[in-house]
Amino acid sequence: MDLLEKIMAAGIVGCGGAGFPTHAKLNCTVEYLIVNAAECEPLLRTDRYLMLNRAPEIVSAMELVAETVKARKLYIALKETYTDEIASLNAAIAAKNSRVEIFPLKNFYPAGDEQIMVLEVTGRTVPPSGIPLDVGAVVSNTATMCGIYDASRDIPFTDKYLTVTGAVAHPTIVKAPLGTPFRECIEQAGGALTGDYHILAGGPLMGKLYRKEDLDQYYVTKTTSGIVVVPDEAKLVEMRQTPLHTILRRAKSACIQCQTCTGMCPRYLSGHPLAPHKIMRKLAYAGDVKEILEDADVREAMTCSECGVCEAYACPMGLAPRQVNVFVKKALRESGFRYRKEMEKPFRKREEREYRRIPSYRIAARLGVEKYYHYTIRDLCEMQPEEVHISLQQHIGAPSVAVVSAGDLVEKGDRIGAIPEKSLGANIHASIRGRVVSVDEHTVVIRRE
After folding, report:
1. pLDDT tens digit string along 91-108?
2. Residue 355 burial (C-beta neighbours within 10 Å; 0-12, 13-18, 19+)
3. CATH number for the domain including 392?
4. Which residues of 98-132 are buried (b: 16+ CB within 10 A; e: fewer)?
5. Longest dimension (CA), the chain
6. Does residue 115 share a domain with residue 57?
7. Whether residue 244 has pLDDT greater than 90
8. Is residue 284 over pLDDT 90?
9. 345 and 218 within one domain
10. DSSP string spanning 28-43?
11. CA–CA separation, 141 vs 43, rounded Å?
12. What distance in Å separates the CA atoms of residue 76 and residue 101, rounded to the nearest whole number?
């Protein structure tokens, strides 16, 4: 098998985002191969652990991928403050006499956003609603590169490295078999330090927020980047819990049209026509959102990355332009609108962008999680759950189809979910040795034996 076939067989998907199947993403020819090692979200430390402990594998995987995609320029982009990680990578590069280069970034949010990273490294703006391939680049996460290295040696994707941090006794990196309960991951980090808390799956800006009472419903997937325990009194909990009708009422009544949400928007600064303040204004004058769905400015909401800068940092009135954009995007999709990217027109970053980068610590402080920002997390705990609940949809595309039945004995690494014929998808593998307890269209449950 060639590399793409091995990646598909191993079930590798993007570990840093929505989980796009990697064998499809790398089926291209590009000028730039960029490894995203900037860890976009404050608090997460997984990429740093991997760069310190698996640097040779990351560099080797880049060389393999570069040969496949014909890339001439190979960069690992990470924050310049990651001095130990840079030293580790440079040692691996030197040992292999590799053509991989380090690209240091300023410590700002959202440095790890895929489109922002492409702009930093190449100087090219990805068109609105476009992808890095549109400007000759492909981007993969650090953990994805580790998965590709394993796949090249016929090792399937069965375990996920992730950060467990926040209000826990011992913030740590865990290597968790897919399907491990969130609760066990938190227990592995010494348990929560507060009785009243919420859980973030991911980082504080773009992660999904869950109630403590619902904790037992959630399990590790291929795209789980972190589990953050957040006290209920943290500002970000209040922001996330505000009802939509309240958000819309505030948007209509309190927006002062200062334009700061637009002026600080990473997409706008990269050269996109997205202007959140215009969407807020037009929504204020509309009786119903359906009245403004034909408006060109409103339709730009479809290009919002939902990074949260506008509501967590920019707006002086405490409004939530991001949530307004999410609401408008949903209405646009329901109306049948599809954004068409412009490939003929070049987009260029705005000059003021250089002076409007937001320090990562400052945005963490605005969210009320700054006390967890400076944690150094170097320990790894390898988890051994007794039972795993493995989702058959851990990726973009069609859900996998179960190829096992209740009662089957499976070894770790056995395929339990297959890509549907002629579909975009990913294979799923058993993450522990054990007996299949149950199978439905969504989940395979395996108990250790």
Report:
1. 999 999 999 999 999 999
2. exposed
3. 2.40.50.100
4. bebebbbbebbbbbbbbbbbbbbbbebbbbbebbb
5. 65
6. yes
7. no
8. no
9. no
10. S--SEEEEE-S--STT
11. 17
12. 6
